[in-house]
Amino acid sequence: MELERLKEGLRARLACAAPFIERYKYVCLVLLAGILLLYAGGGARDEPAAPAAAQDDASGFVLADFEARLEESLSHIQGIGRVELMLSLEETGESVYASNIRHAENGVDSGSYESTLSTVSDGSYGEQPVQIQQRCPTFRGAVVLCEGASRDSVRLAVTEAVGAVCGLGADRISVIQMGQ
Questions:
Q1: Mean pLDDT, rounded, of the chain
Q2: For the segment 94-137, what is each residue's pLDDT rounded down to a tens digit?
Q3: Among 33, 50, 77, 79, which residue's Cβ finds the most Cβ atoms within 10 Å?
Q4: Per-residue confidence at 6, pLDDT binned at 50, 70, 90?
């Protein structure tokens, strides 16, 4: 009996809402689509910042990650076996930012220059400096330990691969037989 009363009350409310829904059906569809997009991840997200210790420079270059990716690629060379890689950097990457320079004259022969960092608004969270150039890291050398280093063909392939990726000459790449 109670269930029948609830069903009847629901039907009556839906009958009252039908003209409203018919009149504003497109508005309701747009609102529903917006809610679904927000729920599904269509809205902006705040990405967590990477820990400062994990990044070697402002560009986000992480030497350990680069070495791991290169090791993975080298492991696919035929006959190389296990491989370990160590890279050394001459210079880390560098970001160059725009600045405003203003000259102020204090007298006939004297003057001063004032430099401020150029910034742009990043929307709602503040200002970001204007980056005008990104310099990549420069490698000093590479040491590759691998099981297949006793074969000349493997040493040559590893030297060419590391040289191509890191921009190093063959004289700066050492390929050494891995001990047991």
A1: 78
A2: 667 777 777 667 666 666 766 677 677 766 677 777 777 777 78
A3: 77
A4: confident
Domain borders along the chain are 2-40, 56-93+136-177, 95-133
Consecutive H or E run containing 48: none
pLDDT for the residue numbered 54:
41
- Residue 83, judged by CB atoms within 10 A of its CB (0-12, 13-18, 19+), counts as buried
Long-range Cβ contacts of 40-49 (<8 Å, 24+ apart) = none
pTM exceeds 0.90 for this model: no
Beta strand extents in the chain (DSSP E only): 83-91, 94-97, 99-105, 111-117, 119-121, 127-129, 131-135, 138-146, 173-177
Q: Contact, 137 vs 93, CB < 8 A?
A: yes
Q: What sign for the dihedral angle of Cα 146, 148, 150, 156? A: negative
Pairing assessment for the beta strands 99-105 and 111-117 based on DSSP bridges: antiparallel
| Residue 138, both tokens | 């420069």
Give the number of other CB atoms < 10 A from CB of residue 149: 20
CA distances from residue 107 to 38, 101, 103, 115 in whole angstroms, order as listed: 61, 19, 12, 20
CATH superfamily of 56-93+136-177: ANL, C-terminal domain (3.30.300.30)
Q: Would you tell me the crossing angle of helices 2-23 and 25-40 to the nearest 10 degrees?
A: 100
